[in-house]
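Archive entry: two folds, one per protein. Generate the first.
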Amino acid sequence: MTVTVEFFFDLSSPWTYLAFNNLQPIAAETDAEVRWRPFLVGGVFNAVNPRVYAMRADPDQTAMNRSFGWLKEWARLAGLPLNFPSPHHPVKSVLAMRCCCALEDDQQALFHFADAAFTAYFAEARNIDDPAVLAQVADALGLDGAALIERAGQPAAKDRLRANTDEAIARGAFGSPTIIVGGKHLYFGNDQLPLVRQRIAESVKIANES
């Protein structure tokens, strides 16, 4: 039995950068099928988790500063380069996520684009709100960057981003990444990946015994 793992993600999230990479060996180990689902985490925050903005507006920023420290420790543990926060933080990710939505039907292309865009932002401190940067990321993968930017501006990509975001909210999301195993078991964040692995293994076992 193959278990499907849906990974709702926004390229602007550092914890999602970690989870995107850390999920891959879990999927390989368990033979899970990952569906990469681009959405807009700002839309989620606006709908169900506005306290995130209150934390960012806190002049003390104690919790945020500690979070950045833990983030760097997690990156070292994962062996991932991290140049964050960069001068572009917090980045507007609408265009980048529309590019992802334009690629969503081709999961392999979406995976490679997301991987490269995460690296551009979190490892290389490039501005993924800049259409030229996104086009360069796409071109380096053998995709047509100019054509992708054009597709991202079309109603189909905009509508898909909105629909994915609304779907994630309806299914219980409150941040990025939101990970759903087997269509119903929801997990949030990089630190819950051990639970994701456990849930996949349990789902396979139950299916094999039934």
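Generate the second and append.
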Amino acid sequence: MFISLTINEKFKTLIERVDRYRSDALSFSNRTIANAGVERIVQHAMAAAENQICAQTVLTPLDEFAARRAEQASRMLKKRVRRVVSNRDADYAALHDVRIAGKRLRYSLEFFAPVLDDHYLAAIEQLAQVQEHLGHLNDLVTSETLLREYAFQLGEPHALKKAVKYLGEQQQLHGRVALEMLRTGCQVGP
């Protein structure tokens, strides 16, 4: 709490400017999406998917389908974890691939939980723990990228430099923790 307060005070002006830019960007995005007719496009896609499902002649029982999807997502995640764990110099991109594959598996397991075996519940918990660190890492990398990209507009070069340094240190910390979790054999799938 004390560290957060100190960091917030140190970067207060910079944070306020970033918040203003984020708010403006959100408003612009909402207007753009509304004007693009995305809702109509999604409804059309849903109708097409429903037609395709109804046209199938052989229906797979839901529990079999769910287990097959969970197994596919699990294999994809384990492959990416092996790649990261075997590489001493695993970079952010490799960890990001693990994060995306982990999200696919976790969301599949959560969605199909009512028809899957209970042993999947432990996998969901472990995935959540690893994803927490990988999510923080992703937030930090994205924040640094955006700060660098909009540095001129944000001003505050001294505070910006300190903020980028702080984000870099936090990236290293969260990356190491996530890698250690993966290397020590944290189960990331059923």
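Annotation attached to the second fold: The chain has eight helices and no strands. Residues 60-190 form one domain.
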